[in-house]
Amino acid sequence: AVPSAIHHAGAKPVYVESTTGYTMDPVDLKTKIKSSGAKFCMISHMRGKIADMDEIKSICDAEGVMLLEDCAHSIGVRFGKGTASCPHTGHHGVASAISSQSYKMLNSGEGGFFLTDDGPMAAKVAVYAGAYEGLSEKHITVPPKEVFGDLPNQLPNYSLRMSSLTAAVVRPQIPTIEERVEKYNARYYMMEERLNKHPLIEVPKQNAKVRICGDSIQFNL
């Protein structure tokens, strides 16, 4: 799905190696940025595994690369001091995307959210999603009208708006995230302890800055 998004944007994906903990390798990121001349870095928090985002952002900022976060798998995951009071994942990039597809922490069948505090980017996304003929003025989470300018006449409308029915399915689930995270994490750490007792199995330790959401578990053999 991640390379597909890059392809749809008319760009060419360049793959960065991952660590044994299933997160982006910052050393290889530096190498790939220099060798490819990349202008954007889309990091995918696959299965809720989070790289050291402070380091990733520092690398991107130093190289003039725009950081984008795919948070489809990291709903409920927080980054900072490894506690529930830390910010949710998705705050290091210029923009982030959250999925509410069937197998995610928020389940609406299909759908998702685009998050950014970049006004022009938010306006473009709203137009692409279907904010035509003044519909953006009815949207409660878009920039002011003046930010849109002539974008509705310049950009195509792909009619990808989330329906009211889909939103109605998602909204009651949002307040339950933390409660479910606690249950999932209790099971996760129990399984981690038991699996790590096997001499041929390793459940990689996650970054101490991360408060996980253990809705799935991965291990190395």
What would your notes on this structure say?
The structure is a single chain. The protein has about 220 residues and is α/β, with parallel strands linked by helices. It starts with a helix and ends in a 10-residue tail after the last strand. Helix 2 runs parallel beside helix 3.
Question: Which key terms come to mind for this protein?
Answer:
globular; alpha/beta; 4-stranded mixed beta sheet; two-stranded antiparallel sheet; 6 strands; 221 residues
Layout of helices and strands:
Blueprint: H1 2-8, H2 26-36, E1 40-44, H3 53-63, E2 66-70, E3 78-79, E4 95-99, E5 112-116, H4 119-129, H5 145-148, H6 151-154, H7 164-170, H8 177-195, E6 210-211
Parallel strand pairs: 1-2, 2-4
Antiparallel strand pairs: 3-6, 4-5
Helix pairs in contact: 2-3
